[in-house]
Design goal:
The chain has 2 domains: 5-41 and 282-395, Aspartate Aminotransferase, domain 1 (Alpha-Beta Complex); 44-280, Aspartate Aminotransferase, domain 2. Helices cover 37% and strands 15% of the residues. The protein contains 13 helices and 13 strands. The chain has helices spanning 5-8, 19-23, 44-51, 67-78, 94-106, 122-129, 150-154, 179-192, 249-262, 267-277, 281-302, 328-337, 377-395; strands at residues 29-32, 89-92, 112-117, 133-138, 161-167, 195-199, 224-229, 242-246, 309-310, 318-322, 348-351, 353-354, 368-372. It has a 7-stranded mixed β-sheet, with helices on both faces. A 4-stranded antiparallel β-sheet has the order 9-10-13-12, covered by helices on one side. The longest helix is centred in the last third of the chain and has 22 residues, at 281-302. The protein starts with a helix and ends with a helix. The chain binds pyridoxal-5'-phosphate. Pyridoxal-5'-phosphate is lined by residues 36, 94-96, 120, 167, 171, 199, 201, 229, 231, 237, 242.
Length: 396
């Protein structure tokens, strides 16, 4: 029986790889620091809208999303990027589908997408769906994961390069690109005739300065797409509502066709998204407050462990952390399968995401792990203490 090469080549999720091993040890309390699944309660208004009845028939919705939902997203983003209307917004099934649509709309088979590395691993899968290929742009923990200078970027461009894709704030890095850096990259992308796709699914979660939306990069605005999502901001990963937004109406007409090919996203989820988008500003402050406290707790605890280095996140809720071990894949598996901290009276261990999964070349990031601050502070402090104990035991 023939199965496609395309499906085979999609890599197993680095983040979920250890799950099967974790399930073999139900007696162990695992601190899950490997998955970006927040435990913050979804706002009551969103849950109420989701529960409201749809009427006697569960009908299809429009391909690009309910007009009210597109209006709500346009109004929301117009607060920081004025002039957006429903024509600039398509509702998608999560930010994931928006990323997929962006790649399919912009790339032909064999085209290339530049992405600062380390990066969110599912970009590889979306690119494979689109017949395209991710070309990594190296960035480094010691330099705060800054985007390299133009002459370095130039060396990575080929006649097949179509997109410069970046997440801001970043997953797995927690880095936020400042306005100057973004304007420089936009000017470079314009010179090279490339689209900018900004993955802004973490844009509401920042700790120092609010990240500049790529929708405000005036000079290149006709070649910018942003991806947004209800998943992280509203702690609604299961809602599966996201947005593709661009001021380029020719592109948006193509995206509408992609939407028609899969029929519209779920109307009920979109009604819940409207409730989310209408939450007051105080909601966002609360979310930032929660994640700032968590990230601070996690990083302060990590700073106590000898030999560990990291870039303190400026946004999102992840950190790439360098450990004094040569191979974090082995170390992460050892933590799950062998290490048990019994000091609290029950066996505990910790699940981390090994670094190589966030690099195109898995020989990179071998001394790094990604940690997610998606539990409340005391649990995070305990998780990091267990990690520290594991590290000490592993190194003998
Ligand atoms: C950087 C980044 N982009 C996109 C997504 C996909 O999010 P969604 O749940 O909206 O599909 C994630 C999910 O973790 C992510 O980390």
């Amino acid at each position: 029986m023939h199965l496609s090469e395309r499906a085979r080549s999609i890599q197993e999720s680095a983040i979920r790889k250890l799950d099967a091993a974790v399930n073999r040890f139900p007696e162990v309390h695992f601190h899950r620091m490997n998955i970006g699944q927040p435990d913050v309660p979804t706002p009551a208004a969103v849950l109420a809208a989701l529960a409201a009845a749809d009427g006697p028939v569960l009908a299809y919705g429009p391909a690009s999303g309910l007009l009210e939902c597109r209006d709500a997203a346009a109004a929301f983003h117009s607060r920081t990027s004025p002039g957006l209307t429903r024509e600039h917004v398509v509702v998608t099934q999560g930010g994931s589908e928006a990323l997929l649509f962006a790649m399919v709309a912009l790339c032909d088979p064999g085209d290339e997408i530049l992405v600062p590395e380390p990066y969110y691993t599912n970009y590889n899968g979306f690119a494979t769906f689109a017949g395209a290929r991710v070309v990594p742009v190296p960035t480094h923990l010691d330099q705060g994961f800054a985007i390299p200078e133009d002459d370095v970027l130039d060396t990575l461009v080929t006649p097949r390069t179509r997109i410069f894709l970046f997440a801001n704030p970043g997953n797995p890095t927690g880095a936020v690109y400042g306005a100057d850096q973004l304007r420089r990259v936009a000017a470079w992308a314009k010179r090279r005739g490339l689209w900018l796709v900004a993955d802004e699914v973490y844009r509401a979660i920042w700790f120092n300065e609010p990240p500049l939306s790529a929708l405000n990069l005036k000079d290149h605005e006709d070649h910018v797409i942003i991806v947004d999502s209800t998943s992280k901001t509203f702690s609604a990963c299961g809602l599966r509502v996201g947005f593709l937004i661009s001021r380029n109406l020719t592109l948006m007409e193509r995206v509408e066709r992609l939407g028609q090919a899969r029929l519209g996203p779920q109307p009920r989820g979109q009604r819940a998204a409207i409730a989310a988008l209408n939450l007051p500003d105080s909601y966002y402050e609360e979310v930032r407050h929660i994640y700032r406290a968590r990230v601070d707790a996690m990083m302060d605890a990590l700073a106590q462990i000898p030999g560990v280095s990291f870039h303190r996140p400026e946004g999102a809720f992840y950190s790439m952390v360098r450990l004094p071990v040569p191979d974090t894949e082995r170390f992460a598996r050892w933590l799950v399968e062998e290490f048990r901290d019994t000091t609290s009276g029950r066996p505990e261990s910790v699940v981390v995401a090994p670094g190589p999964g966030f690099y195109a070349d898995p020989s990179k990031g071998r001394d790094e792990i990604r940690l997610a601050a998606v539990r409340e502070e005391s649990q995070l402090r305990r998780a990091v203490a267990v990690l520290g104990a594991g590290l000490q035991a592993y190194r003998g």
